[in-house]
Structure formats: structure tokens, C-alpha cells
Amino acid sequence: MEKIKIIHNKKMETLDIWFDDPEKEFICEEVGDGIILKKDKNGKVIGIEVLYFSKNDIPLEFSNISNEANEEVYWVGRI
């Protein structure tokens, strides 16, 4: 995956940041209050989930590329 994928789910108030294909997710590990690491089957971190996240927490403005009602998807640069 050449891009970082950021998904803000307004209904669930979560922010997912993917460094690799989300379909490779195998296990999750909560590492702090509302911070979850998403790992592949080899234990490599491929994403981060932030719980209790609202749009007011986004410090920058990104272009929304999703048509989902409760989800906003953003692509941000190359890794």
C-alpha cells in the first residue's frame, strides 16, 4: 500500500489510520486509553484506531473521498 488511509467513522466516533491493507488485520492490541494497534499475522503494526474521536479533533482539513453516510475516508500522501 503506497498511501496512508484515514477513516473517520462519525457514528462510532472512531478514527482509523492504516499503513497497509486493512484486510491484513489479524489481531488488535489496546495500548492506551482509547488507542488500539492493528496488527497483521506476523505482529507488524499496520494500523491504529483512536476511540472517542470527533470531527472537532481533526486539526487539518482533508479531502473526503467517500460517499458513506457515517464514514469519511481520506488518502494522505505516500509512506
Proportion in helices: under 10%
Mean pLDDT: 78
**Computed Rg:** 12 Å
Name the beta content range.
over 45%
Strand order of the largest sheet: 3-4-5-2-1-6
Distance between the first and last residues' Cα: 8 Å
- The number of helical segments is 0
Task: Give the topology string: H per helix, E per strand.
Answer: EEEEEE
> Could you name the ranges where pLDDT drops below 50 across 5 or more consecutive residues?
none
Tally of DSSP β-strands: 6
Q: So what's the overall shape?
A: globular
The main β sheet shows up as: 6 strands, antiparallel
Q: Indicate the structural class.
A: mainly beta
Overview of the molecule:
There is one protein chain. The chain is an all-beta fold and 79 residues long. The protein contains no helices and 6 strands. A 6-stranded antiparallel beta sheet has the order 3-4-5-2-1-6, with no helix packed on it. The protein is globular and about 35 Å long.
Short note summarizing the structure:
The protein is 0% helix and 48% strand. It has no helices and six strands.
Structural descriptors:
single chain, about 80 residues, globular, mainly beta
Give the SSE map.
Layout: E1 3-9, E2 14-18, E3 27-32, E4 35-39, E5 45-51, E6 71-78
Antiparallel strand pairs: 1-2, 1-6, 2-5, 3-4, 4-5
